[in-house]
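FORM 7B: Structural annotation worksheet

SECTION A. Query
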Amino acid sequence: MNATTEQDKHRGTMGKTLHWVAAALSMIGTIWIALLMFVIVADVMGRNFFNSPITGVAEVAARSVVAIAFLQVSAAVLNGRMTRSDMLLRVFSHFSPRVTAFLELLFALVGAVVFLAVAYAVWPDTVRAFNTNEYFGVRGVFTVPTLPFRAIIIVGAVFAALAYLAVAVEHLRQIGRPQS
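SECTION B. Predicted structure
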């Protein structure tokens, strides 16, 4: 049985839904990157060839980078692509797969806590942005509401935490499996 089928066997409806949502968020982030690249190139061309830049590109691009990262982080976690140092894990993997799985479990739980802390920290600013119609930019020239960008951070952080919890459950299963 291949690894994907083995994972699908253990993954329930919630796990499949989480993977689907993470993939959808990542796809939105990828499309956003393509659109942002197009707008930045158009801005540079307009600035250099026609002395007419596109207003607000720098402001939107700066906030887009953060939003895109949060849209794609849950998929990175679920697909094992989150950047980390695994030197300690490689050492333990030679001696005890259970110790390695336990360390992976701890790392996943810490990851979930960190992303829940991010969501918690951003929540008050998001509520304030909703209540006050907060925006960024220069009034009368170019403004964009901050609410969508802040909401994306919360959604991305919550799904990243859920992804880490799903990874933690998988490592918990590995700890409980008989060693061969």
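SECTION C. Observations
The chain has one domain: 3-176. Residues 114 and 161 are 8 Å apart (CA to CA).

SECTION D. Sign-off
Analyst initials: ____
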